[in-house]
Amino acid sequence: MSSDLAKFHNVSCFFAALAHGAENAIGQSANSVCFLAGKRLAREAIEKTDTTTDPVQALRMVTTALAQRGISWEGEEFQGEREHLIECDGAVKRMRLIFRTCMVRNTLFTYAREQKQSLCYFSHGIFAGAMEKIMPGSSVKIEIIQACPEACIEEMVWEEKQ
Length: 162
What we know:
CATH class: Alpha Beta
Radius of gyration: 16 Å
Strand content: 15-25%
Order of helices and strands: HHHEEEHHEE
Largest sheet: 5 strands, antiparallel
Structural class: alpha+beta
Shape: globular
Number of domains: 1
CATH architecture: 2-Layer Sandwich
Number of strands: 5
Number of helices: 5
CATH topology: Muramoyl-pentapeptide Carboxypeptidase, domain 2
């Protein structure tokens, strides 16, 4: 195993253990704490980026901006069975995403922990915070549709603030 890979493995296990401890100590509120921590991290990590109102373009910009900070997280839009890529329900918009590469998922499998827990919410916070930074005036959240070993399907839900 390479030196960098060994370091990543050790750090991954540390974060998984930390998340596991938080889940045991504070229960379900660990998800909210991790989500908010992720949002703050993302806002600080991609301070100097362009902005857009187009969510597909924003998705590509987030991927690039995070990659420049060493966060490899490749998401792409996923229409699936829907008639339209973006669905609108009044002011609320929804777009499904598929994530094939996810450091958190890899960490959870290394540590033998379940998905859909605090580390997933941390990564959702990172994504939501980055999207809010690139799409100013939007409030973004992520909903898990399907969590699998090879890819996760999630739904980005956002509302543009008036």
